[in-house]
């Protein structure tokens, strides 16, 4: 079976920069507190009538251009998001229309912070089996419209930002490309980082009270310490799983591109693996946590900065809500 | 490179009750989409002689998850006790189960997973507009869950071909707009709820027309790919929100009604659950058995449409 590879990347970040100082206008927090706990200095917020598919479409066009392709060349669209444009249908459908792709399959993957890697793993298989030759995998989030930007919501709200990344996945030259993907979940911790409403545990699923009550279930909730503890265990585990599966060790790894949830998590993961800082990509200081968009954003930045060379061994890894976690090992 | 075959099926459909003047399966006390799927999965697993600990992947197709995030597959994984296997949520609306089947098939073909729990489940009743003025639409829907366990197929059986399509230019002909991440600064407001913008709406004529065209097109395409004539197919299982559209599509295809499962005629629209529920029912009743050739097709919101040809 042939390997699949990321043939090209494209990204989009909204223009509006929201600094930690800006957040202090809406909530009781401080630049020092946010930086110390999370490493975030600023994030981007979209404006106007911008949905996940609008940003995803901009990233997708850039990825297509970088690949020298047009939307007509695509065989499939996979869209990872937890902040879809509308409740239904999937954001992939809206994106398909926006980029003018033909009547190809377009679906959403709803796997939170691991969403891009779940989507990449699916794309990898369709290319391996020869079913598809060019798949658009998008991760895009508009978090800013789903956050409680008051002191009540600060624990979660200070972390997240908006953004989009897109990858074109197609056949690799022999010896290169995605070597393996590894996906996991542990649903017993689903409520440790979640957005309760709307959902199907209540009829009706959404009421005015859910928006106006003291503790609105329409905003995400997180038990931060819990998430942190699991992240620093699962990240090294799933990175080693990818290396072991291909007969490599941490020493062989040229670059780790982790999901950007919290700089402290990524520093602990690097330390646990014995990876020096120059072999780990971090951009959370400028983007915040963009969930499904974080890995393509960070990877694209690393590629553009010349940190990824042909032949490098690159590991993408994620951990987040679900809990879900995942990795992909790539010979670039 | 073995393709995915059906190893066991199960379904759960709540008892029929009066629902806006129609008899529909409605879950009396909703506890989440994943809870609806549990009995379906247990039956599917037992028929596939597979213990939950032997499952190596869960793929869950729904339009309404237990919560906004994480996905229902995560909740289901916990309810079934499937350790730390992947739990994937797929959104492709009414065609979601066939999209999910195609994805599961790819993982099986690559030899990555050997026992995949594949679920289509919908708790429509918590979502539709409960006001009497909307009963014409709300009465179309029912609750239900279907589950298949799929794994490497015997030579010549399993998923033989499938076709998947989307036309997002018509996404607002069958949709639910809110919550909408694109609405700034807040994706859902009291005003949105008061206006009922968080309920599904549907352009009836557009959706019917699309179904009449898309279902026969998808069936012809998948049969054409397989080089199989329609009269060789033992059973057609076709999902659409309007059961009359399924009848019209079948008459267009020249398929006698006796060879068609039209779940919407019996239950109302079960969305992604319609196909796995109907196949599980047919297996239970003995209408389908090993070796049968099944063609499943669906068309709906997105728009998405799909067809699959499967040898049991």
| Helical percentage of chain B | 25-40%
How far the N terminus sits from the C terminus of chain B, by CA atoms, comes to 18 Å
Strand content of chain B: 25-35%
What would you report as the Rg of chain B, rounded to the nearest angstrom?
18 Å
Overall strand count of chain A: 13
What is the average of the pLDDT values of chain B? 97
Structural class of chain A: alpha/beta
Cα-atom radius of gyration of chain A:
19 Å
Helix content of chain A: 25-40%
Shape summary of chain A: globular
Structural class of chain B: alpha/beta
Largest sheet of chain B: 5 strands, mixed
Assembly state: heterodimer
Largest sheet of chain A: 5 strands, mixed
Query: Which percent range describes the beta-strand content of chain A?
Result: 15-25%
Distance between the termini of chain A: 18 Å
What brief labels describe this structure?
heterodimer, A: alpha/beta, 5-stranded mixed beta sheet, 11 helices, B: 312 residues, alpha/beta, 14 strands, globular
Written description of the protein model:
The complex is a heterodimer of chains A (332) and B (312). By secondary structure, chain A is an alpha/beta fold. Chain A has eleven helices and 13 strands. Chain A has helices spanning 20-23, 31-38, 52-67, 91-99, 115-128, 154-157, 208-212, 224-245, 263-273, 284-287, 294-304, and strands spanning 4-12, 17-19, 42-44, 76-80, 106-109, 135-141, 163-171, 177-185, 193-194, 221-222, 255-258, 313-320, 324-331. In chain A, the strands form four sheets. In chain A, strands 1-7-6-4-5 form a five-stranded mixed sheet, sandwiched between helices. Chain A has a four-stranded mixed sheet with strand order 8-13-12-11, with helices on both faces. In chain A, strands 2-3 form a two-stranded antiparallel ribbon. In chain A, helix 3 (52-67) crosses helix 4 and helix 8 packs parallel to helix 9 (263-273). Chain B starts with a strand and ends with a strand. With 312 residues, chain B is of the alpha/beta class. The mean pLDDT of chain B is 97. Chain B is globular and about 55 Å long. Chain B is 31% helix and 26% strand. Chain B contains nine helices and 14 strands. At the A-B interface, helix 4, strand 5, helix 5, strand 8 and strand 9 of A face helix 2, strand 5, helix 3, strand 8 and strand 9 of B.
